[in-house]
Amino acid sequence: MKNSRISHLRAFLVELMSVVLFFSVALALMSRVFAAAHNLRQKASDLTEAVAKVQTLAEYAKASYSKEDYKQSLIALGGIEVGENIHFYYDEKWQLQSWKEESCYVVEVLTQIESLKSGECIRINIATKNKEESIYNLQVKKYYTGIVRGDKT
Q1: Within 13 Å of residue 141, how many CA atoms lie on the same side as its CB?
Q2: pLDDT 10s digit of each residue in the chain, 153 long?
Q3: Residue 63 within a domain
Q4: What is the secondary structure of 77-95 as a DSSP string?
C-alpha cells in the first residue's frame, strides 16, 4: 500500500513538473514574440516619423528661392548649423531638442551647389538616423534660375 502511494505521488510530481516545464517554454517563446513585435512596431513608428520630418524639410526646399533662403528657413525651424550642414535633434518622442547629447534621433541636411549658366542646381541629401542606424534618406534637387545674375526669379 505504501509503495502504491509513493508511485502515485511520484507520477503526480513528474506530471506536475512536465506541465511547469511546458508552460515555462511557452512563456519564453511568447516573451520573444512580444519583444520582436515591440521592436518591429518601434521601427515602423520611427520610419513614419522620419519620413514626415524629411518630407517637411524637402518641401521647404521646393518653396525656397535660393540656398541661403532654404538655410534660413531651416534655422527658423530649429535647425542647428554644423559646418555647412544643418542638423535637427529629436528626443525619443520626436520632439525637437536643442542639445545633441539629449537626442535619440538626428536629421542631417547636406547641401551641395552646382553652378550652371542660367542659375544654380542645389542637391540636398536629408538623412535621418538614430543612435544605431540610418532610418530614412531622401535626395532632392532644386534648380534656382537667375541666381548667377543675382535676381530671384
Answers
A1: 5
A2: 567 777 788 888 999 999 999 999 999 999 999 999 999 999 999 999 999 999 999 999 989 888 889 999 999 999 999 988 999 999 999 999 888 777 899 999 999 988 888 888 899 999 999 988 999 999 999 988 875 444 454
A3: yes
A4: TT-EEETTEEEEEE-TT--
10 Å CB burial of residue 145 (0-12, 13-18, 19+) is: middle
Domain span at residue 43 reads: 2-145
Give domain status of residue 153, yes or no: no
Query: Could you give the C-alpha distances from 3 to 8, 13, 16, 48, 55, in angstroms and in order?
Result: 9, 15, 20, 67, 78
**pTM, two decimal places:** 0.75
Cα–Cα distance for residue pair 14/93, rounded to 1 Å: 50
Number of domains the chain is built from: 1
